[in-house]
Amino acid sequence: MNQKLVESLAEIILSLSDEERKLLESKTQKPKTSQQIADLESCIKRFEEKYQIASQEFYRQFQAGELGDSADFFEWNTYYEMLNSAYKRAS
């Protein structure tokens, strides 16, 4: 590990304004968010194919109590909410 480099970076980061820190955080989080979105979309696609319904319609029906209590539905609901949250973070 290059301790001198780490110390220099820490010094620079600590000297940043709040706005600059937020910008730095958003730049370093985007790749994680992009990968998370791809992973969640993959999970959701499996449910859409299995149950032959779009997630948006599934979510509406599930939230309205029109579907059963299957573990798949709770998992799908959670993935859908996580995906929407990740989309908001990415924008």
Describe this structure in words.
The protein has 91 residues and is mainly α. The protein has one domain. The protein is built from four helices and no strands. It has helices at 3-15, 18-51, 55-63, 71-90.
Strand content: under 5%
Query: Sheet with the most strands?
Result: none
Whole-number radius of gyration? 20 Å
Order of helices and strands: HHHH
Oligomer: single chain
The shape is elongated
Q: Helicity, in percent?
A: over 70%
Number of strands: 0
> Are there runs of 5+ residues with pLDDT below 50, and where?
none
- SS class: mainly alpha
The number of distinct structural domains comes to 1
Count the helices. How many?
4
Overall pLDDT confidence: 88
- Cα distance, first to last residue? 34 Å
